[in-house]
Amino acid sequence: MLKKFPFAALLCAVALASGCTTHLSEGQKRELDAYEQKGLKAEEKSVGTAAVLGIFPMAGYFYTGPVLAVTTLPLYPFLGPLWMPYDSAQSAKNRNYYATKEFVEREKRKALTEIDHKMEDKQLTYEQHVREQRLIEAKYSPY
Fold first, then answer.
1. pLDDT tens for residues 98-124?
2. What is the largest CA-CA distance in the chain?
3. Whole-model pTM?
4. What percent of the chain has pLDDT over 70?
5. C-alpha 82: how far from its chain's center?
6. Within 10 Å of residue 21's Cβ, how many Cβ atoms?
7. Are 39 and 140 contacting, i.e. CB atoms less than 8 angstroms apart?
8. Which residues fall within 8 angstroms of residue 115, CB to CB, at 6 or more apart?
9. Inter-residue contact 72 to 61 (CB < 8 Å)
10. What is the DSSP-derived secondary structure letter of residue 43?
11. C-alpha span between 43 and 30 (Å, rounded)
């Protein structure tokens, strides 16, 4: 009985460490949907491709990010075909969420810098600058 304890403890530790990608919270899902409706969603990884690759040992995790790929191999015979397609798809959604956030922030900074230069060049008055700034803030806001 005691000889099986280290193996069981190792198996539990691997189970807890693998296949546990951080999935999007409800707020993050709403935010991503809002960006998608505004046409600002960036898709870095295909959710469908990640799910299909999740059927094969470690392939879905290598596609979405190799961090968890090695730790999932011991569990593949037990949970792999059932859990990994779902988890790989969720990991792709997570990557797309952060890619979208980076894209939106980069585009917003670019637009704000452009109107700042216009104001410096006296092409915009202060009031016009504030108005343009509000429009940019609204465009790149998720809500």
1. 999 999 999 999 999 999 999 999 999
2. 81
3. 0.76
4. 75
5. 22
6. 19
7. no
8. 124, 129, 132, 133, 136
9. yes
10. -
11. 16
